[in-house]
């Protein structure tokens, strides 16, 4: 479900938005193919950042234009000035030396799946650092993953031309996904 609101019709430069229009777009959502959980995905980095990242549905145009450039990849990854902020439709996590690094909520949507994954990680004694990982850190990363409501926890094995870790889904990613699936109903109650 994607809600939209417009200013309504405007027929002149001094026309105020007297009749805003609200509409909702309903789309069929399917869980990703099982193969992506087994093999991982590639993300396409772009030097851009979403406007108002804390608002989930404010502006999809940037993701549409970036996705066109990202042929053959799973999703675009917003990386303004070399900082990895988030995916077009997901939260990005880098795993380096058994520490999870992810952008702070001042830069990304504080989504439910993100909160759950961070809670699981902390319970599993995995250190969490909330800062934007850098593109330059990808070569040192052990693994990476993205999260989202429908996609759950998806391993990332490549960002652009940079292979992550050994190019296969990592142990921490798999463990967090398993624990997420095992406990999801507890968190959603």
Topology summary:
Elements: E1 2-6, E2 21-25, H1 34-39, E3 41-46, H2 61-69, E4 75-78, E5 86-87, E6 91-96, E7 99-102, H3 112-123, E8 127-130, E9 143-148, E10 152-159, E11 162-163, H4 171-188
Parallel strand pairs: 3-4, 3-10, 7-8
Antiparallel strand pairs: 1-2, 4-5, 6-7, 6-9, 9-10, 10-11
Helix pairs in contact: 3-4
Verbal overview:
This protein has 189 residues and is of the alpha/beta class. The protein has a single domain (32-188), classed as D-amino Acid Aminotransferase, Chain A, domain 2 (Alpha-Beta Barrel), CATH 3.20.10. It is built from four helices and eleven strands. It has helices spanning 34-39, 61-69, 112-123, 171-188; strands at residues 2-6, 21-25, 41-46, 75-78, 86-87, 91-96, 99-102, 127-130, 143-148, 152-159, 162-163. Helix 3 (112-123) packs across helix 4 (171-188). The longest helix has 18 residues, at 171-188. The chain is globular and about 55 Å long. The model has no long low-confidence stretch (mean pLDDT 86).
What is the CATH architecture annotation?
Alpha-Beta Barrel
How many H/I helical runs? 4
Q: What would the average pLDDT be, to the nearest integer?
A: 86
**CATH H-level superfamily title:** D-amino Acid Aminotransferase, subunit A, domain 2
How many structural units, i.e. domains?
1
Terminal residue distance? 21 Å
Write the CATH fold name: D-amino Acid Aminotransferase, Chain A, domain 2
Shape: globular
Helix content: 10-25%
Rg, nearest Å? 18 Å
The CATH first-level class comes to: Alpha Beta
Number of strands: 11
Structural class: alpha/beta
Q: Spans of 5+ residues with little confidence (pLDDT < 50)?
A: none
Q: How much strand?
A: 25-35%
Main beta-sheet strand count, sense and barrel state: 9 strands, mixed
Q: SSE string, helix = H, strand = E?
A: EEHEHEEEEHEEEEH
């Amino acid at each position: 479900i994607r809600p939209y609101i417009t200013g309504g019709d405007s027929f002149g430069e001094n026309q105020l938005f007297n009749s805003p229009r609200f509409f909702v777009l309903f789309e069929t959502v399917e869980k990703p193919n099982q193969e992506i959980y087994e093999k991982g995905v590639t993300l396409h980095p772009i030097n851009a950042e979403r406007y108002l990242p804390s608002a989930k549905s404010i502006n999809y145009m940037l993701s549409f234009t970036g996705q066109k450039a990202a042929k053959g990849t799973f999703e675009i990854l917003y990386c303004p000035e070399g900082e990895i902020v988030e995916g077009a439709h997901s939260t990005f996590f880098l795993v380096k030396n058994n520490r999870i690094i992810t952008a702070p909520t001042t830069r990304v949507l504080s989504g439910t799946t993100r909160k759950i994954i961070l809670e699981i990680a902390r319970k599993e004694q995995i250190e969490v650092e909330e800062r934007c990982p850098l593109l330059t850190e990808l070569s040192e990363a052990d693994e990476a993953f993205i999260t989202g409501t429908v996609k759950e926890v998806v391993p990332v094995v490549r960002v652009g031309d940079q292979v992550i870790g050994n190019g296969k889904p990592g142990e921490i990613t798999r463990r967090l996904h398993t624990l997420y699936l095992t406990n999801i109903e507890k968190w959603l109650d």
